Amino acid sequence: MAESRRAGPSSLRRTRILATLGPATSTAPAIRDLLVAGADAFRINFSHGTTESQRSLIRTARAVSERHRSEVAIVADLQGPKLRIGPVVGDSLDLVAGRPVVLDANPAPGTPERLSVALPNLATAARAGDPVLLGDGNVELHVDRVTAGAVQTRVVQGGRVHSHQGIYLPHARLRGPVLDAKDLADLGVALEEGADFVALSFVTEGHDVEHARREIRRRTPRPVGIIAKIERARALSGIEEILRLSDGIMVARGDLGIEVPLERLAVEQKRLLALGQRAGRQTIVATQMLLSMVNSPRPTRAEATDVANAILDGADAVMLSEESAVGGYPALAVRWMDRIARATEGSIARERFRRPPSRTPFARTEEAVAEAAVQTAETTGARAIVVPTHSGRTAHLVSRLRPVVPILALSRLASTRRRLALSWGVRTAHVPARLSLDQLRRLAEQSARREYRLEPGRPVVMTAGYPVEGRPTNLVLVTST
Q1: Residue intervals in the chain for CATH 3.20.20.60
Q2: 452-464: burial string, b at 16+ Cβ within 10 Å, e else
Q3: Where are the domain boundaries for CATH 2.40.33.10 in the chain?
Q4: CATH 3.40.1380.20 occupies which residues in the chain?
Q5: Architecture of domain 9-80+178-346 in CATH?
Q6: Residues carrying an active site annotation
């Protein structure tokens, strides 16, 4: 990581950086450069590459992080059921405004008058008056009429389309599994290779998350986090249920920015981050954050502002996509994200870090204990909050309150420590199993002193379960280094 494992509390970066691996970062030296630059987690995009290349990326990333002594999360991003047009004549063609275009299931190469769409229920999904968007949303069609086997449209905004580009029907209610045959095969690969999170594409409702959870449990007994990618307009209306059933959300602004009006994208991003933080779920902002750095060693002013605003809005993590996967300056892109995050966090007043104390009854005792730990740390001037944890849940509950002091999670499980790599402000350390409360307290003191270079006698808050082994969090105590 960019900061030393033993950096002082004031120098720590709280916001995490998720970097996508790809052709530009497939070797051990390149991945090590990302770690040194400040990457906290790696995304493997299963929409691209072969099974062999995806396995190799995960194995190389894991080996490099172990040599680098970093607890790095691996996020397997499944492709999902994205709707696409078929091939077109010459691999690309221009659609002209005002001209009619028929959408049907004929697999023949498309022309300026007809495009193929491999969706059996297309004629029932679309209705007269609906918009249809192609590619990145730059080409827009309007549905004039729907017949038994085709959809008659007219070009509203013309432009160039390419073979197999995405097609979006923002008003349609398309039915289908969130995991198709390719996704299930990719899920098996990701779990075999020890992925810590699965990013679920094109989630529309909580049922999608439940289905994915069942498939994961069928394949592995170990805990694996589910990140629901919010990129469908329909997901916005069901976001509370999606948050309740998932471990985190990713604001995937590429597809989401096509399905919702572009002028509302920033508002929806802020709302999603606020809801995710309130629900105690990990939140990630993704897509085109430093896109110019695919070809440039320096981001634009607008991009720097975009990253800063995501941090100001409380995102747990910000993500690099093409910038680190295929760009010419992957490690430098991470460094810039690190610099922007540090500068932004450093400008936030102490009182703005913290979420106001809850004024409603807590659903669980551990939520109340987390709140008490943060308030105690602020009242006593503690230099750190130490959280012994088995699953990582308590550490993330403390994290969602955005305390001013750093959070140190102690866990004997490497899988738990890796999953916390996407939680705001949390650093991790190994702890032996079956310790008494007194042993745990002494270890908390030693760990805080070592990790944050604290002088002897500095106050530290610890929250844990008592009796220790296997108990839910129910205790807050103040000790000193």
Answers
A1: 9-80+178-346
A2: bebeeebbbbbbb
A3: 89-168
A4: 365-480
A5: Alpha-Beta Barrel (3.20)
A6: 43, 84, 229, 287
What class, spelled out in words, does domain 365-480 have in CATH? Answer: alpha beta
Closest CA to 345 of 6, 4, 17, 35: 17
pTM exceeds 0.85, yes or no: yes
Segment 276-294, tens digit of pLDDT: 998 989 999 999 999 999 9
Break the chain down into helix, strand, coil percent, rounded to 5. Answer: 40, 25, 35
**What homologous superfamily does CATH list for 89-168?**
PK beta-barrel domain-like (2.40.33.10)
Single-letter amino acid, residue 106: N
d(CA 404, CA 402): 7
Q: If residue 155 lies in a helix (H) or strand (E), which one and from where to where?
A: strand 150-157
Report the pLDDT value the prediction gives residue 145, as an integer from 0 to 100. Answer: 93
The two structure tokens encoding residue 116: 């193929």
- State yes or no: pLDDT of 205 exceeds 60: yes
Residue carrying structure tokens 């897509």: 287
pLDDT tens readout for residues 410-423? 999 999 999 999 99
* Structure confidence at residue 389 as a pLDDT band (50, 70, 90): confident
Contact 43, 375 (CB under 8 A): no
Query: How does pLDDT run across 222-254, given as a tens digit for each residue?
Result: 999 999 999 988 899 999 999 999 999 999 999
